Amino acid sequence: MNKIVIVILILAFSLILGTIKYASISDTYKNSSCFLKFIEWWNDFVNFLITSLIGYYFITIRWPYLLNGSDLLVSDLILFVFFILGIFGHLCVLSKNITDGAEAILKRVLEK
Length: 112
Description:
Elements: H1 2-25, H2 34-67, H3 74-87, H4 91-111
Helix pairs in contact: 1-2, 2-3
């Protein structure tokens, strides 16, 4: 039951922070369609949701192992990088850049 409450709090936290981040950039999308506004809000929400879930995983699962003397893994460092990107709101920017890059590569490959 306690884990369900924590997941609900994570969802609420992500919803609030995603809305705050979208509100800070909403002037950019003033004349855009509702779908684009929703997509941008959704990206901000998912950014903080992924970040919160990574933090929750690290605190509940990895931290006890590290306190017991387990080695720090490369995956822990990768998760830390994603966590930092998410905290500062750049995770959604990273995913968009990766998507745009893959789209450009596919266009070049398919045009030949």
